[in-house]
C-alpha cells in the first residue's frame, strides 16, 4: 500500500507517470511493475476520479460477470482516460464484436476470458491489433502477416498501438 501512496504523491497533478496502453505494454515487457485493479460490482463511472487518485496504472472493467450497458462502459472509459489510468475491459466472451465495441467506446485494451481454442485467440488478437480489418483480411494478417498494402499495415500498427490484449485461459485440457 505504501508503494501506491508514494506513486500517487509522485504523480501529483503534473500528469507525470501517466501511462497509455502502449507505455503499459512496454513497461510490462521490460520487466517493470504495474499496479491495477478490477471493478466488478460498482456501477458508478465516478469511480474513475477516485481510482485515478490512487496512482494506479490500469483498471479492468468487468463485463463478463457484471451487467453493464454500452453507455455505462463508455462513461467509465471517458473517466479513466481523463485521469490517465489505462482502461481495459473484460469482455463477456472472446468474440471480435465485443472487442471492437469496447475499443470503439474508448478502452485501451481487452481481457478476453475463457479462451479455449487457437481460433478464439486469433479472433481476439485480430480485433485488438488489426481493427477495422475483418474476415479474410484479418485472418491473413494474423495467420500470414499479409496486408492489402504496406501502407495499410503501417496505418493499423499506428492506429492500434495503444491497444492491450490479454488472453485468459481458464481451463486445463
Automatic annotation (TrEMBL):
Instruction: Extract one GO cellular component term from the record.
Output: cytoplasm
| Keywords, comma-separated and alphabetical | Lyase, Metal-binding
Q: What Pfam families does its record include?
A: HpcH_HpaI
What InterPro entries is this protein classified in? Aldolase/citrate-lyase_domain, HpcH-HpaI_aldolase, Pyrv/PenolPyrv_kinase-like_dom, Pyrv_kinase-like_dom_sf
Q: Which GO terms label this protein's molecular function in UniProt?
A: aldehyde-lyase activity; metal ion binding
Domain annotation HpcH/HpaI aldolase/citrate lyase: ranges: 42-159
Spell out the family assignment given in the record's similarity comment. Answer: Belongs to the HpcH/HpaI aldolase family.
What is the name attached to this protein's record? HpcH/HpaI aldolase/citrate lyase domain-containing protein
Q: Which organism is it from?
A: marine metagenome
